[in-house]
Amino acid sequence: MRKFTAFACGTGAGLAAYYYHKLRDPQLTVHNSWTNSSHPVNDFALWDSNWDCRDPKSLVKPQKNDMPHEQNRFNTELEKSLPKHARHIILIRHGEYLDIGDSDETHHLTDRGRLQAKYTGKRLHEMGIKWDTVIASNMVRAQETADIILNEIDFERSKVKNCAFLREGAPIPPQPPVGHWKPEASQFYRDGARIEAAFRRYFYRAHPDQEKDTHTLIVGHGNVIRYFVCRALQFPAEAWLRININHASITWLTISPSGNVSIRYLGDSGFLPAKQLTNRIPRQAKNVV
């Protein structure tokens, strides 16, 4: 029995030493069996700290040498470039609408869509947020949703910004592909560049002179919001169609002073009564209020 115990202990120690050294060898990294990745985690999926091209170190002229005065110059300029507050971006999907006709002008909210927008406005009011900026897509359903929300929150209508970059579209071919939705390649080419431009326009860390946390409200569309979430969190952008968000739902992203991005709400619609929850376009108009 003693010989067996000694053999077992010796074997266990030997195996432990073998796997310890094997795991430390970057060429022999053992991968988690529940992932599909064939690359070590340190080869991909690392956070890009300069994703918005505003990392303070990238904005300051590098040190010329190690002299004290040059180090002081660099540190002083770096300190001036450091953001001190966060940016909160709250994304609202428009309410339910009826897809009638070939033009955007006929795509008005349904009765339920208008009620959804009202519930969302009340929810935003209850949050007690002091809005710095309100932006809406210039498509009819987003404009109508924003108009109803503005009846509930404290923000001057004259200060609302309308943005054509936020219009609904096809951001990027999704993975995995879906059979029921196959836009032409030209649509991805056209819409993708515009939606990416919208992301770069609104998603970035605070300026160094920002004196407090800011809150930006954006009323837009499902595809655009889902793409924004993937881009902001540095998930594969092709995964956007794997996410579902309800009409008039709230998605809240926070960009910290360091440039890190976190998500507080993703498609939150728990404030809506169950019978008002929708995420697809109805086939015909129904008064469901």
UniProtKB/TrEMBL annotation:
Instruction: Return the InterPro entries for the record.
Output: His_Pase_superF_clade-1, His_PPase_superfam, Mito_Ser/Thr_phosphatase
Give a yes or no for keyword Mitochondrion in this entry: yes
What reaction does this enzyme carry out catalytically? O-phospho-L-seryl-[protein] + H2O = L-seryl-[protein] + phosphate; O-phospho-L-threonyl-[protein] + H2O = L-threonyl-[protein] + phosphate
Q: What keywords is this UniProt entry annotated with? A: Hydrolase, Membrane, Mitochondrion, Mitochondrion outer membrane
EC id:
3.1.3.16
A GO CC term assigned to this protein in UniProt: mitochondrial outer membrane
Q: Which GO terms describe its biological process?
A: positive regulation of mitochondrial fission
Q: Which GO terms describe its molecular function?
A: protein serine/threonine phosphatase activity
User: Assembly state and interactors?
Assistant: Interacts with Pk92B/ASK1.
| Family that this chain belongs to | Belongs to the phosphoglycerate mutase family. BPG-dependent PGAM subfamily.
Name the record gives this protein: Serine/threonine-protein phosphatase PGAM5, mitochondrial
Which organism encodes this protein?
A: Drosophila rubida
